[in-house]
Write a structure and sequence with these properties.
Elements lengths: L2 H28 L31 E9 L4 H18 L34 E7 L1 H4 L42 E7 L2 H14 L4 E12 L28 H7 L21 E10 L1 H5 L3 H8 L36 H5 L10 E2 L2 E7 L5 E11 L2 H4 L1 H10 L6 E11 L32
Antiparallel strand pairs: 1-3, 1-4, 2-3, 2-9, 4-7, 5-8, 5-9, 6-8, 7-8
């Protein structure tokens, strides 16, 4: 026996004796020691509520975004799908299997209710958020009757669910853009997020099919003051001035659709009251070119220091940038073409957005360059006022555009949530599917 092993054995005997003597004290102390806080992996967020989860929820670390095309013209089939999706989402967000039976149980000669890859995993803070694309109401661009209004929803198209204009710097791939339906699954475990979309996609067979998907990692925005500001693939802190969930008055103003917007343009869009709009933009970053740029140029283009994230006008990360401050040469310290200046609310009529962006890396292209960048996600009260003007200005004036190209785009109306306590439950208290179970977007089909 080596000296190390001998010492280990002796130490073990001492520890064992001490443990035996202390057992009683531990038992007594355990009764007055509070339970530890749940780990991030065990965290759950309720699916039901006035608003859908996954919007003001503290941004999780992983994302799986999927857009679907509806392949049927049967309105009842679409409603049935949304009802099934609602119950499945309510279950999976609580760490339950997608259906009433566990993946390894149920009828032996039928497919399992759940695909099973997340069977041993906790909920990991999973949220599932649903939205409707413009084409669900009026068909794809250029569609004619009967495809233009397959489900009789044309008169309920929200005024803000517009066709986004072509912006300078856009090189959009139609296969990575738009869609009738969108599902945003966010979690702190990528397998949990993928599992959610996989099961929803399986349930959609015969009614809808995936049009495009995007995996995201390393959130690039903070949606809560309790979260540290993350960094994007350019190495800069991103979303320092992002709207936070704790700013309830501003969230009410800049995120949730008010009742008085329901009849704009003569449409009946009351179903969207309390909902919001999701803007999704896949932005490829030319990281190789960026990596060869000087630190001076990088900071000047962003308008912040790369280390602290402070505005170039001085201060710390959360110091409000002084856009009027000039240097010894008389030029603005925060450059006129810097991202910070052009995106600042004072330059955009006070507009703010709730961003939930993520990094992505999808391999490389034929020249060996990384296909990587930012999946920009923002929830806004009206994209016509809270996204289009700002993006028009950025795409034309932002110096960062030299290093960016937008390759995918989507705009979706996100309805309010299913009310608390509305979903039917079984004898075990978990959500179950019934013919009259409420569903996401139900007011749209009323």
């Amino acid at each position: 026996m080596s000296r190390r092993a001998l010492l280990g054995l002796g130490g073990g005997l001492v520890v064992g004796a001490a443990a035996a003597g202390a057992a009683g004290a531990v038992a007594v102390d355990a009764a007055r020691t509070p339970d530890p806080a749940p780990s991030p992996a065990d965290r759950t967020y309720p699916f039901t509520g006035a608003h859908q989860a996954g919007i003001v929820t503290p941004a999780q670390d992983r994302l799986y975004l999927a857009a679907f095309d509806v392949t049927t013209t049967d309105r009842d089939a679409l409603v049935d799908l949304l009802r099934r999706w609602t119950v499945m989402a309510a279950r999976m967000t609580q760490g339950l299997p997608a259906g009433p039976f566990a993946p390894a149980s149920g009828p032996y000669d039928a497919p399992p209710d759940d695909t099973g890859e997340a069977a041993d995993l906790p909920a990991a803070g999973l949220t599932i958020t649903f939205g409707f694309g413009r084409s669900l109401f009026v068909g794809a661009p250029g569609a004619t009757a009967p495809d233009a209004d397959r489900f009789g929803l044309g008169g309920r198209l929200p005024a803000g669910l517009v066709e986004l204009p072509h912006f300078a710097g856009d090189d959009l791939d139609p296969a990575r853009s738009d869609g009738d339906l969108v599902v945003q699954a966010c979690a702190d475990d990528p397998q949990v997020a993928v599992h959610a979309v996989r099961n929803l996609s399986r349930a959609a067979f015969g009614t809808a099919r995936i049009r495009w998907t995007q995996l995201g990692y390393g959130r690039t925005s903070s949606t809560s003051t309790a979260q540290r500001t993350p960094r994007n693939l350019f190495g800069f802190k991103d979303g320092t001035a992002n709207l936070k969930a704790e700013e309830t008055a501003d969230v009410e103003t800049h995120v949730w659709v008010p009742a008085d917007a329901a009849t704009e343009g003569g449409t009946d869009a009351a179903w969207l009251t309390g909902g919001t709009y999701l803007v999704a933009r896949r932005i490829r970053m030319h990281v190789e070119t960026w990596d060869r740029s000087s630190l001076r140029e990088q900071e000047a283009l962003v308008g912040r220091t790369k280390g602290e994230g402070a505005p170039l006008s001085g201060g710390t990360e959360f110091t409000e940038p002084d856009l009027d401050a000039t240097g010894g040469d008389g030029k603005p310290l925060v450059a006129l073409d810097s991202h910070v200046r052009l995106a600042h609310p004072t330059q955009n009529d006070g507009v703010r957005m709730l961003r939930r962006g993520y990094n992505f890396t999808d391999g490389n292209d034929a020249l060996g360059r990384l296909d990587a960048g930012l999946l920009f996600l923002a929830f806004v009260v009206d994209p016509r006022t809270h996204f289009v003007p700002m993006q028009t200005r950025l795409s034309a004036q932002d110096g960062l555009m030299e290093y960016l190209v937008h390759t995918g785009s989507g705009l979706f109306a996100v309805p309010p949530g299913v009310p608390d306590g509305a979903l039917p439950t079984g004898s075990d208290g978990t959500p179950v599917l019934t013919d009259d179970a409420p569903f996401i977007g139900q007011a749209l089909f009323a």
